[in-house]
Amino acid sequence: MNDAVMGLVREDLRGFAGYRSARREALQGEVWLNANESPWANPADDGTDAAGGVRRYPDPQPAALRQALAGLYGVAPGQLLAGRGSDEAIDLLVRALCPPGDGAIAITTPTFGMYAVSARLQGARVIDIPLQDGGPDEGYACDFDAVAAQVEAAGARLVFLCSPGNPTGQALALERIEWLAGRLAGRALVVVDEAYGEFARGRSAATLLGSHANIAVLHTLSKAHALAAARIGAVLAAPALIEVLQRCQAPYPLPTPSVELALRALQPGALAVTRARIDSVRTERERLRGALQGTTAVRCVYRSDANFLLCRFVDAQASFQALLGAGLVVRDMRAVPGLDDALRISIGTPEQNARVLQALSARAVAA
Questions:
Q1: Is the whole-model pTM more than 0.85?
Q2: Fewest Cβ atoms nearer than 10 Å: which of 14, 54, 62, 137?
Q3: Which tens digits make up the pLDDT trace of 54-68?
Q4: Thinking of the domain 270-366, which architecture would CATH place it in?
Q5: What are the extents of the domains in the chain?
Q6: How confident is the model over 195-213, as pLDDT tens digits?
Q7: Average per-residue pLDDT in the chain?
């Protein structure tokens, strides 16, 4: 399986050693003078942790964090690379598989914008196979046959699938993802972005890693785990690809304070609270969707497997301004092709969601 996935990696990077930082050297000692660090802690750093505060460069891939994330996502530590949110993983994958100024990726719009941004920065072409709008109850569907055909025709090395989709909200059928990976074996890597996966109820695409070397899965602690500012994410993939990505990664990608916070967040007690809050989001998502559908300002609300709702409005500008006037900031999606009447609303607390309904109901009465 490793040979199969390595055939997708840029030829010039298959033997690339990358930068070997001081922290990657397997050395032991009492006085560390190998990384040109300060011998004193910064006055703002109390230096109470075992590593001597933040004056030392961090471990590029802390074993405890890697183990905790692997346990969370049901993979082996060697199948996981931790990094700065999902964004870094997207960038690493594009750089590792697409030669500069060459290559192509496939995306299914409307979708997360960073796939196309990373491709553009690398000079790679973007092949767009738009999702199909099936209406509020069916949601947006992926034409997997069209994706396979266009990837093969364009010679794209990467396919980015967002599941649940952003901004659409719907999860993709796992059996169709598996079919696509089988169809594109040896041709392209199928990347499943599960940034919102905790809010859905189906199995993760990570369960396919053992049988499909050309699948990679993206995760983040930003959403369900409420650690957006900590910037901790992970890519799950075949061990050989993980090694390539690590060699392409910055020498010290994970700040020690962020790692320590993530480890505390992954303890059983914190995870129990997180799971309860995920259940609350799911409940509120359905309640808010039903209530919004009964508001005259709203044209339709798409079903969602994520922690947000995509809504089409009778007058999106007036509704956007009404929400802002009530102190409520939502995401304006009107610049996205096909969504010129749409706003995306994150699921808040029950009290926050009630304020959304109140603002839109007041807008409807005023109109």
A1: yes
A2: 137
A3: 888 999 999 999 999
A4: Alpha-Beta Complex (3.90)
A5: 2-21+57-266, 270-366
A6: 999 999 999 999 999 999 9
A7: 94
Handedness of CA 18, 24, 26, 27 (dihedral sign): positive
- Between CA 65 and CA 206 the distance in angstroms is 18
Cα angle vertex 161, ends 64, 143, to 5°? 155
pLDDT digits (tens, 9 = 90+) for 95-104: 999 999 999 9
The dotted CATH code for 2-21+57-266 is 3.40.640.10
